[in-house]
Amino acid sequence: MKKLIISTLIVTILWFVMFSPWTAPHLNFWVAMSVSGLILMTISFFIGGTKINRNEFTFSNILIGVVTAAALWGVFWLGNYLSTRWFGFAQGQINSIYDMKNGNDVLIVGALLLFVIGPAEEIFWRGYFQRNITENFGKSLKIKSATWRRLAPVLVTAFVYAAVHVFSFNFMLIMAALVCGLFWGFMFRFTKSIVPLIVCHALWDVCIFIIFPI
Question: Contact, 57 vs 198, CB < 8 A?
């Protein structure tokens, strides 16, 4: 658990630097996010002991990733439709997220999302963070409820994933992170493999930001 706490502190610092109004204006977000992704993968592989079995790269796992990416895009399309009608501030906050693309080559941004940022986030958040909580959380806190032991890793990981986005002071971004965290967390809970998550996250990133922005 000590490694997990230290890793959480590192991620919190990285996300603060990338999203806070005091530091973000001085950075190229996509470069900073890619560097952060590489740091996350380093933590996952060399500190967390995360491993990706090549046998997980099956047609079914890749297909699950593709289908769930499309499903998640649909969830966000509906969420965008409803939120922009319910909340007056929603559209402005959503636009500010897309503004991060301004002045950047969309092909480069797309490549970073597909090959670095999306995979790195899943390798860390589900492959390292959620997996470690699943293995150690119940034992550390002596949780007896089998249902809570199954749900806690998903909920805790999703909460922390959303919480580190709080430095953006963007309610829509924080809620988007929470929805994604829950979606990918339960997906990992049922598939038991990181590969569908990597495919889903990477494709969804490219679709929502580049190909089919909402």
Answer: no
